[in-house]
Amino acid sequence: MLDAAKLAAQWEPQVIEARRYLHAHPELADREVNTASYIWEQLSQYPSLTLSRPCPTGVVAVLKGAKPGRVYAARCDIDALPIEEYDDSPFKSQNPGVMHACGHDGNTAMLLTAAKILAEHPEEVSGTIKFIFQPSEEANTGGSIEMVQAGVVDDVDTIFGAHVAAECEPGHFYLRNGATHAAVYGIEILIHGIGGHGGFPYQCTDNVMIGAEIVCALNSIVAKNIDPCKSAVITITSFTASQANNIIPETVVLAGSARILNEEIEDLVTSRIRQIAEGICAAYGVTCEVRLDKGFGVVRNDDQVTDAVRAIMQREFGADKVTADSPVLGGEDFSRYLEKARGCYFKIGTRGLRDGVEYPHHHSRFCLNEDGLKYGVEAWLSILTRIQDELN
Q: How remote is the C-alpha of 219 from its chain's centroid?
């Protein structure tokens, strides 16, 4: 049996080196040209891997094991965020205004290293493993749809996804059966009325006030329409109106998102958003356009696969290191893959401090603790070499 702990420890310098290179060269969604080239260059050194580019900035590496078995897939995300990094480390972002503030550099480095190790040990692999390096997870529609449409998972029986977790200690893992991430709807509400002078609101329609009333009223959906035992959140993050203090604009634009953890309430939430916006606008004699763009669906872990992953990780790390996770209302386009194959998504502890402060994901001072990376590699090696026996 593959000694995952020993190999992960031996390869720790390489996984840290890969993470630091990726951190210093972050690229935004759909622009991961250098990142994809780096991944390709690293993996092309292994004859046992068959490489392909299903989309312009995505890479898939296929490893056929020496033992018979199913087709499995392991996926990571490779894009960064439009955030200016505040750091003075030697591997800080070299691309102004772009930063790996979510930890995708760690996700990629761990899976990249696991792929290299298993490429050197195909005799330990049952079936076929597809290593998916996916672009554009941070975009609203998600890069997974390109991979799915390209047929990458058409023959996959089981797929796994993992993400570093700023709130979890290195060497600890979090996973859960059932829903882990919410469905995400992009919201855009365009209010069309009569513009005019700020000093004469009675000559026009006060479209800014109407927009403000809609923002406040949308908060009633979760408070008054949703069973409190079910989870949803609606957030308006952008309010675009006039740039002058004496102009009432003809059009006001509200934008934000709705995040829904229970599929059975999706129709209720989205219909209420429309009803509230259209009703308030009608009451004031203006019109509106309500655009709801569903990006990701609910990520729902398969029970059998999740139980198998939990058992493998408890044996590898100890039961005290594998914790039941709580669902979150963040989105994850891993949900696209789960429409095609059963799977499990889990978290890898990389809690780090910068100047004594724990900064969250998507913060300009986000800090990933590199001590957790070798444990992530060890987890990937354990799962991918033992899942066949566990599921059987």
A: 25
pTM of the entire structure? 0.93
Q: 170 to each of 195, 274, 372, how far by Cα in Å?
A: 56, 44, 4
The burial of 234, by beta-carbon neighbours within 10 Å (0-12 exposed, 13-18 middle, 19 or more buried), is given as buried
> Token pair of 246, please?
């004496």
- State the DSSP code for 359: P
Query: What torsion, rounded to 10 degrees, do the Cα atoms 352, 355, 359, 365 define?
Result: -110
Tokens of 303: 């029970």
Burial classification of residue 319, based on how many CB atoms lie within 10 Å of its CB (0-12 exposed, 13-18 middle, 19 or more buried)? exposed
Q: How far apart are CA 297 and CA 300, in angstroms?
A: 9
The CB density around residue 28, as the number of other CB atoms within 10 Å, is 17
Strands (E), 78-182: 126-134, 158-165, 173-175, 178-181
**Residue 379 to residue 50: CA distance in whole angstroms:** 23
From the list 123, 151, 120, the residue with the least C-alpha distance to 45 is: 120
pLDDT tens digits along 344-391: 999 999 998 888 889 999 999 999 999 999 999 999 999 999 999 999
Task: Judge whether 23 and 85 are in contact, CB under 8 Å.
Answer: no
Distance CA 299, CA 334 (A): 7
Where in the sequence numbering do the catalytic residues fall?
Answer: 79, 137
Distance, CA of 186 to CA of 257 (rounded, Å): 5
Place 199 in a pLDDT band, splitting at 50, 70 and 90: very high
Copy the structure tokens of residue 316.
């590898």
**Cβ burial, residue 47 (10 Å; 0-12/13-18/19+):** exposed
